[in-house]
Amino acid sequence: MSSAAPRRPVIAVRGGVRTTRRDRLAAEEPMEIRVTGPDGVTTPVAVTMRTPGDDFALATGFLVTEGVVEPGTVTRVAYCDDVEREDQRFNVVTVRSARPVTPGPDRAHAATSACGICGVTSLDAVEVRCDPLSGGPRVPADVLLTMPDVLRAAQRVFDATGGLHAAGLFDPGGGLRIAREDIGRHNAVDKVVGTAALAGDLPLHDHVLMVSGRAGFEIVQKAAVAGIPVLAAVSAPSSLAAAAAERLGVTLVGFLRGDGYNVYAHPDRIVP
Q1: In 3D, which of 267, 138, 260 has the Cα closest to residue 208?
Q2: What residue ranges do the domains of the chain occupy?
Q3: Predicted structure pTM score
Q4: Which of 61, 96, 101, 249 could be disulfide-bonded to 190 (CB atoms 3.0-4.6 Å)?
Q5: Tell me, what's the pLDDT at 130?
Q6: For the domain bounded by 139-271, which CATH number is listed?
């Protein structure tokens, strides 16, 4: 399996001084996700550009948050042996489900690491049906404000490369339960959700999801499908993300940094 932070020779210029050194870069490789239903039929679902590592969690989280498989129905996850090139063996993952699967719209071309909904032909096609979330934890504001630093401290590959996003699952007291990194922000979220799904912990009604970048529509959708009622980001949400959060019952926090934040939807879960 490839390294998450391979080394590469670079020319570095600092203060006019030119040196050659080896630098670590954030790895980016394609991964094909396949799903097998109880009938034994295997279907390619998507190809996503990701940072190698936690591949089984990524595949599981993607399929769960996209509505392809139901939480709790995954019976096996494995790399595929039937690949034409041996160097691609660890870039194809098959998830087996005990219940019928819903592959949905065609996404079987490579989606970029920046894109969470690439390959989907319409907004209606990507809206996973789920009931609006109710209840959930009440999070003290002073606890919320500690989460960016806690998540940042867990970003080990970012420390080496400076090129990865992160997602973290917190309890209402600010304890970090799961932290994952990836070159794609949506992949980092899928890795978190997939880790919880494989542990049998979905839905995550009593948790907070923290992301290191902006909050787009697809991240709000993934949080809602996983049952996470509070989503916080260090950067801005999009207008569609705010509208989706309002509709899906997700508390959406943006610009969480320093001593401040903005709440864009369902503020009652944040305790001043």
Answers
A1: 138
A2: 29-122, 139-271
A3: 0.89
A4: 61
A5: 77
A6: 3.40.140.10
